[in-house]
TrEMBL record:
Homodimer. Forms a membrane-associated complex with FtsX. Keywords: ATP-binding, Cell cycle, Cell division, Cell membrane, Membrane, Nucleotide-binding. It is found in: Cell membrane. GO terms for molecular function: ATP binding. This is Cell division ATP-binding protein FtsE. It holds the Pfam family ABC_tran. Residues 2-238 form the ABC transporter domain. PANTHER family: CELL DIVISION ATP-BINDING PROTEIN FTSE, IMPORT ATP-BINDING PROTEIN. One of its GO terms (biological process) is cell division.
Amino acid sequence: MIRFENVTKRYRGTKRPALSEVDFNVDAGEFVFLVGASGSGKSTCLRLILREDVPSAGRVAVLGRDLRSLANRKVPYFRRHIGSVFQDFRLLPSKTVAQNVAFSLQVIGSSRGFIQQAVPEALALVGLDGKAKRMPHELSGGEQQRVAIARAIVNRPKVLLADEPTGNLDPATSVGIMQLLTRINAGGTTVVMATHEAAFVDQMQRRVIELKGGEMVRDEVGGGYGDTSSIPRLTPEAVPGAAAAAALTAVQEIQRETITGVVPTPPAEQPATARPAAAQDAVEPSAQGAPWPPAVATPPEERATAAGPRTTPIVIPEVEVAELGMADRLGLSRDDDEEVGPTS
Ligand code: ADP
């Protein structure tokens, strides 16, 4: 379904290639984690799969299509078969939840009748029925990511690409998002997820493709995250001054949570704010088992079902997706024509 053949990608003006002779094959229905330190080439892989960029050497084939020979005018049609979700949700801020999800159907010319049926079904699948008329800023971070996932799957894609989808979310909310991605995959959608979340990768025991400096250093079925030494650690420093004392207290609190497994009650529900990239670079929360800074409050429903620290086992629900009556519409059922080219 996704084939990388000795793919090298060099960005203009850079000395080192972002990807060097990367070679792998993802079959239909797989759930694959792409792991590696920041800058190792994960996003570049996803961009090549989406045909947002092309390799400098080698070949990328997706859904039976050699993307090198895919004409630019056919790219939008090809992308209809691939859903994408990102760390920063990328919702349209001036549109309601339903309008955000409908948008991806409107741009491809779906009928009004289909949109009216498909959008509520997608929102129900991600657990957001009842929130169709809300604006994105009225939702928690986890809810915003659910909207983004609904938007990504409403068009029944064969492949779902997720680039750090839990990167802006607190631990309990992240578990809910991982459960949702697992359900979508259980319905037959191939999922490729780039992540730094070592705990999730370790718990889920899915296929792991690890990149290091653009080279593929591991392709392991049922693997764990592996080497976490590249993930920055948060170490308290005893520096004089009130601000430093406050920071130290906060760090000690995180360490206490990690040791005891106790997660403090989050502050009152508040709209989500994405963590600035610089903050994420400075401190990687997953390494310590708690968000820093705590960017979002956990929605009550997610607290009830998934409360716990980063090490909370991910409960993979026994969901019969077909029973939801929407599996086929959302591309969540297995079928035999996955190799049919997207433009055929
Ligand atoms: P990751 O997703 O693992 O953080 P990326 O794929 O974003 O890694 O980046 C891989 C390497 O390519 C990095 O060294 C990064 O600086 C470089 N890179 C990514 N995008 C561009 C670009 N548009 N132009 C130049 N260099 C880039």
